[in-house]
Amino acid sequence: MAGERTYAILPCPDVDDAVEFYEALGFHPTYRQRRPNPHAVVRCEDIQLHLAGIDGFDPEASYASVIVVVPDAEALYRQFADGLRAHLGRLPAADVPRLLRPRRKQGTTTGFTVVDVGGNWLRFYREADVGEPEPAATGLARAVEVAARQGDARGDDAQALVALDAGLTRHHDAPADDRARALAYRAELLVRLGRAGDAAAALADAEGLPLTAAQAEAVAPDLAHAREVVAGAGG
After folding, report:
1. Which label site among 21, 96, 113, 118 has the fewest CB atoms less than 10 Å from its CB?
2. Which pLDDT score is estimated for 123?
C-alpha cells in the first residue's frame, strides 16, 4: 500500500511558546486546540508537526527525536538560522532551544539538528545523502566526526570535548585548515558547556593559525559560525 503518512506528536510545556518558536523557523499553524488538551499543528511545506502541551513537562528530560529527510538541508538550515536570529537576536547554540549547524558525524550522514522549546530533537538530512556512504575521513578530520557523533548526535558535549581534545593532541601535526575546523568546533562545544572564556580562547587559537588563501577560504564558514556562537555566549 502506498501513500502512507506519519506525523510526529512532540511534547512541550506550553503550546503557545512552541508555536511561536516554530513560526520563527518559518512554520505556520494550521490547527489550535485548547480543550480538552492543549494541541497544535504547524506546517512548513510538507513537514507537519503536532505539538502536545503537557503540564509540568521538563524539556531537559525529553527523549523525543524525529528524523526529517528534505531535498536541501543546507537551505533549510539557513532559513531556520535567519528566523531564529530575527526572533531571538542571536543564534541559539546551547541549552534549550538550540540549532546545530550542518556537520558530518562519524557513522551518520551530514545534517543539522533543531532542539525545540520542548527539548525535542529534529534531525534534518538531505534526501540524496540518506543511505549513501561517504568516503571515510582520516586523521584530525575523523576525530572531529567522532566528537560530532557524541555532541551533535547524542547531545553529550562533555564526551565530545574529550574526544576532540584527544584528536587535537594525537594529530598535533595536522594541516592548519583541519586544526582550524577542530578548534572552531571546540569553541562551540565549550559554549555549550558554559565555558565562554575558554571558548573565546579556542576561537583565538583557530584564528591565529597560519593559513594559505585557499585554506582560509575553505574554513571561513567554520570560523564565522564559531564567532557568532562565542559572541552570543558573551552577550
Report:
1. 96
2. 95
* Length of the chain counted residue by residue: 235
What's the topology of domain 8-127?
Answer: 2,3-Dihydroxybiphenyl 1,2-Dioxygenase; domain 1 (3.10.180)
Cα-Cα end-to-end distance for the chain: 53
User: What gap in Å lies between CA 22 and CA 28, rounded to an integer?
Assistant: 7
| pLDDT at residue 189 in the model | 98
Question: Which pLDDT value is given to residue 133?
Answer: 57
What pLDDT shows up at residue 129?
66
DSSP string, the chain: -------EEEEES-HHHHHHHHHHHT-EEEEEE-SSS-EEEEEETTEEEEEEE-TT--GGG---EEEEEES-HHHHHHHHHHHHHHHHSS---SSSSEEEEEE--TTS-SEEEEE-TT--EEEEEEGGGTT-PPPPP-HHHHHHHHHHIIIIIS--HHHHHHHHHHHHHHTTTS-HHHHHHHHHHHHHHHHHTT-HHHHHHHHHHHHTS---HHHHHHHHHHHHHHHHHHHHHH-
Per run of 10 residues, the mean pLDDT along the chain (length 235 residues) is 87 97 98 94 96 96 92 95 96 95 80 96 84 74 94 95 98 97 98 97 98 97 97 82
Other C-beta atoms lying within 10 Å of the C-beta of residue 207: 16
Q: How far apart (Å, rounded) are the C-alpha atoms in residues 114 and 96?
A: 10
Q: What is the pLDDT, as a whole number, of residue 104?
A: 84
Q: State the cell numbers at 161.
A: 570535548
